Amino acid sequence: MSGGPGVSGPAVPGPVVHGPVVDDETRCIHYRSAVDVIAIKFACCGEYYPCHLCHAETAGHAAAQWPRAEWGERAILCGVCKHELTIADYLEVTACPACGAAFNEGCRLHSHLYFDAAAPLD
After folding, report:
1. By residue range, what is the domain housing residue 66?
2. The whole model's pTM is what?
3. What DSSP string runs through 22-69?
4. Among residues 39, 41, 37, which one has the least CA distance to residue 99?
5. pLDDT of 34-93, one tens digit each?
6. DSSP 8-state class, residue 12
């Protein structure tokens, strides 16, 4: 794949993303629209997965939510440019601050699965 939508060139290397990914921008078999380009480092294992379903199917352990006290941790990976965002930064944006790739705003509906917060976040 290329470096992202409208960008030509080789894929940018980044952290390993586990689970059934379908391309080098972190899309998976569960979520693979044009804006499904993030992976989340899970608090329980420190490994990146594209979504909660990928983790549930392949990690071999239960997921844990990131406590608010750790929202300064870089735990969100932009699949387009491989920039790592803090959880707090990710929750404030709708696109990658490094490359401008749009993020799926529907992911907010699942935020309670990853982050210790009232669901869903506004």
Report:
1. 1-122
2. 0.86
3. -STT--BSS--STT--EEEE-TTT--EESSHHHHHHHSSS---PBPGG
4. 37
5. 999 999 999 999 999 999 999 999 999 999 999 999 999 999 999 999 999 999 999 999
6. P
* Two tokens, residue 120: 């869903």
Report the residue count for the chain. Answer: 122
**Residue 82 falls in which region: left (phi positive, over 0), alpha (psi -120 to 50) or beta:** left
User: Tokens in use for 109?
Assistant: 């509906």
Token pair listed for 4:
């992202």
- Angle (nearest 5°) at CA 49 between 87 and 5: 80
Count of domains forming the chain: 1
**Cα–Cα distance, 38 to 6 (Å, whole number):** 17
CB-based burial of residue 72 (10 Å sphere; 0-12 exposed, 13-18 middle, 19+ buried)?
exposed
CA 96 to chain centre: 11
